[in-house]
Amino acid sequence: METERYIVTAVAGPKVAGRRVEAGAILELTENAARAELLAGTIVREIVRKPAQTQAIGDAVEVETETTAPTEDSTETTAPKSKKR
C-alpha cells in the first residue's frame, strides 16, 4: 500500500497511530491508518510546495496598445472644470 507523509499537530497526545510521537513529528502512514487520526485532528497532510516557475523578462506577455495623436480639433482639456458661484 502507498503511504503519505503527515505532520503531528499540537493537539495530539503522546501516541498517534500507535506510535510514540511529539508535536511536529512527521509520520508516513497509509490512508487507512491515517483516517481516524485525521478526523481527530492529531495529524495533517504534509504539503509539498514546488518552487514557482519563474518567467524570463523576455518572455513577458505582449499587450496591444493603441495610441492616438492629438488632432487639430482637440481643444478640450483634461482638467476638471470648476463651477462658478
Would you kindly provide a written description of the structure presented here, covering whatever features stand out?
With 85 residues, the protein is an alpha+beta fold. The protein has a domain of 43 residues. Helices cover 12% and strands 21% of the residues. The strands form two sheets. It has a three-stranded antiparallel beta sheet, covered by helices on one side. Strands 2-3 form a two-stranded antiparallel ribbon. Strand 2 and strand 3 form a beta hairpin. The longest helix is centred in the middle third of the chain and has 10 residues. It is elongated, with a radius of gyration of 31 Å. The termini are far apart.
Topology:
Layout: E1 3-8, E2 15-16, E3 19-20, E4 26-30, H1 31-40, E5 43-45
Antiparallel strand pairs: 1-4, 1-5, 2-3
Major sheet: 3 strands, antiparallel
**Element-by-element helix/strand order:** EEEEHE
Q: Find the structural class using helix and strand composition.
A: alpha+beta
The residue fraction in helices comes out at 10-25%
Shape: elongated
- Cα distance spanning the termini: 84 Å
Count the E strands: 5
Low-confidence segments: none
Q: What's the tally of helices?
A: 1
Radius of gyration: 31 Å
Mean pLDDT: 79
How large is the share of residues in beta strands? Answer: 15-25%
Strand order of the largest sheet: 4-1-5
Which labels suit this protein?
single chain, 85 residues, alpha+beta, 3-stranded antiparallel sheet, two-stranded antiparallel sheet, 1 helix, 12% helix, 21% strand, elongated
